[in-house]
Design a protein that fits this description.
The complex is a heterodimer. Chain A is mainly alpha-helical. Helix content of chain A is about 80%, strand content about 0%. The N and C termini of chain A lie far apart (about 55 Å). The model of chain A has no long low-confidence stretch (mean pLDDT about 90). Chain B is an alpha/beta fold. Helices cover about 35% and strands about 25% of the residues of chain B. Chain B has ten helices and ten strands. Chain B has a six-stranded mixed beta sheet with strand order 6-7-8-3-9-10, with helices on both faces. In chain B, helix 3 crosses helix 4, helix 3 runs parallel beside helix 6 and helix 4 crosses helix 6. The chains are: A mainly alpha, B alpha/beta. Chains A and B meet through helix 7 and helix 8 of A and helix 2, strand 6, helix 3 and helix 6 of B.
């Protein structure tokens, strides 16, 4: 009788734990879905009033007049993200190659915690660093070098700060990816008479291509959504930027600066929700594209 | 020794503070199969890898002595290391096909040394795939990734890839240890054919394999060469006590 009870208990416990897992899994699955539906719901009011094309391709932002054109914010976000990736991408790739292929093992042992610390720093610190270091650099040196008188608060400042923020993030993934490529594969290439660089180009990078794409994809999503550090240096002027030295106004800054401030204006609440929806969709698309590339190249 | 292609003199190799190879003095005869035999951990793989200088990839390895290929010292050579490596094809314990198509795996060694003419590459790829009995099995799927082949086919592909750079020597590190019996036999038979044109250095711990295909045997134990002799002499009349013990299966 006693033995039966033990078995019963074990089965019961098994079931309880299993149900916990199901619930957690459900939460993870339902959360983004409900977020999406919530944002849709809230921005529906705006979408009723204006066509999607108008919203996306007009740069007229006059909330008082009920005109919400997002082009300025979209362009700012895209520029800041792309330039930051352009800076961070090569740096990460070359650093990761050096650390995993050339450097002595103790260098990586020292660098790994440094990268982790960088990745874990609160983003406001990067923002302060941007104001204290990047802005003066742009205003006093780089701007004048190109013959421009600039304040420094600009798309480029945002991109530089952002690139520094996503470097440790991308770098960590790249290092891990390169370490999973078997040593013997490189040796096979070397023993066929390839140089180190040929081996890196044709074997290491080729083998880890899907991983590199997903690392950059994740970095891009992060950059696109990063708020506070960019907000501190990017200028936040509602004006369609036409150059990297001009101030910009990315989507996350729009939400952070205005939510809760000017909600007395009709539809403003809905307009901000719509920009959140935009962010959500863009990040979703980034993810989908990088997954597609991974799927295709791993075949 | 007559007709030796490789002569190793007073080779010592340290991995950090560990003394892996101790005073190695051996000769490897040209166009014969030389088997390096010994229990695992005796340094036989390290010895093989030092021949094409793969050991130097690890910064903590220190090496001294001479490895002479046709009388020319490889360790202190002014010659480019890639040129030295091209003289030896390497076959590893498990096949590691490069992350590219079957065709490109064979063409790889030629391409990286600047041979790009399509016609030339086509003929070479076919030639070496035929030489490894792979052509009929793969001729319709040359563009498919090499990873889609079976393990046995992959190992033959790796052999074809190594032969395509026209080496003088084939270095094989327990090349059949991951293969099924049929594929193993194919590789062994191939080696027996190839020794007319190549010098083969084969690392193994399988006595049967050594007995079957070796011409010359080098027996290693704890980083030292215990005995080297012709295959008959080695198996029928071993001189050293350790060799006798090993052949009787007293240690592995």
């Amino acid at each position: 009788m006693n033995g039966l009870k033990v078995i019963y208990n074990r089965n019961l416990r098994n079931r309880i734990h299993l149900s916990w897992m199901w619930i957690s899994l459900g939460v993870v699955f339902v959360l983004p879905l409900s977020l999406f539906i919530g944002l849709m719901w809230k921005s529906a009011i705006l979408l009723d009033q204006q066509s999607l094309i108008d919203l996306l391709f007009s740069s007229e932002w006059k909330p008082m007049a009920g005109k919400f054109g997002y082009l300025t914010f979209i362009v700012s976000s895209v520029w800041v993200t792309m330039i930051s990736l352009l800076i961070a991408g090569p740096v990460c790739l070359l650093t990761a190659i050096h650390l995993t292929q050339y450097a002595k093992s103790w260098v990586l042992k020292i660098m790994a915690p440094v990268i982790d610390i960088l990745a874990g720093l609160p983003s406001v610190i990067f923002g302060v660093w941007g104001i204290l270091f990047v802005i003066p650099l742009l205003a006093n040196h780089i701007g004048p070098f190109f013959g421009k008188s600039v304040s420094g608060y600009s798309i480029l400042a945002g991109a530089i700060v952002l690139s520094i923020m996503i470097i440790p993030f991308i770098l960590n993934i790249l290092i891990e990816i390169f370490q999973t490529v078997p040593k013997e594969l490189s040796e096979a290439s070397l023993s066929l008479g390839a140089t180190r660089w040929q081996t890196i180009k044709f074997v290491l990078l080729k083998k880890s291509f899907p991983g590199i794409v997903s690392a950059f994809g994740l970095g891009m999503s992060r950059a696109f959504g990063e708020t506070i550090a960019v907000l501190m240096v990017v200028g936040n002027v509602v004006h369609l930027p036409t150059g990297v030295f001009q101030p910009g106004y990315p989507l996350p800054s729009l939400i952070a600066n205005n939510y809760g401030e000017m909600l007395s204006i009709p539809m403003y609440d809905s307009a901000l929700m719509f920009s959140a929806l935009l962010l959500f969709v863009v990040v979703l698309i980034f993810n989908a594209i990088s997954r597609l590339i991974i799927l295709r190249s791993s075949r | 020794m007559q007709n030796s292609i490789i002569d190793i003199k007073q080779l010592n190799l340290y991995y950090g503070k560990q003394h892996i190879l101790k005073d190695i003095n051996i000769s490897i005869p040209a166009k014969k199969i030389t088997v390096i035999l010994g229990p695992s951990g005796c340094g036989k793989t390290t010895l093989l890898r030092s021949l094409n200088r793969l050991t130097e990839l690890d910064a903590s390895v220190k090496i001294s002595g001479e490895i002479l290929l046709n009388g020319q010292d490889l360790l202190n050579s002014t010659e480019d290391v890639t040129t030295i490596r091209k003289k030896m094809g390497l076959l590893a314990q498990r096949p590691y096909p490069l992350p590219m198509s079957i065709y490109n795996n064979v063409a790889y060694g030629l391409r990286i040394s600047g041979r790009r003419k399509k016609k030339f590459l086509n003929s070479r790829v076919e030639y070496y795939l035929r030489q490894t009995n792979l052509w009929d099995e793969v001729k319709d799927r040359l563009k498919e990734p090499a990873a889609t082949l079976s393990i046995g086919q992959q190992q033959r592909l790796c052999l074809a890839r190594g032969l395509a750079v026209d080496p003088q020597i084939i270095l094989a590190d327990e090349p059949t240890s991951a293969l099924d019996p049929h594929s193993s036999r194919m590789i062994e038979e191939k080696f027996a054919e190839l020794k007319d044109s190549y010098t083969i250095v084969l690392v193994t711990h399988i006595l049967r394999q050594a007995k079957n295909i070796a011409d010359h045997v080098i027996f290693m134990y704890m980083g030292q060469v215990v005995e080297q002799a012709d295959v008959r002499e080695f198996f029928e009349n071993p001189k050293e006590q350790q060799t006798k013990a090993y052949l009787q299966g007293q240690f592995y």
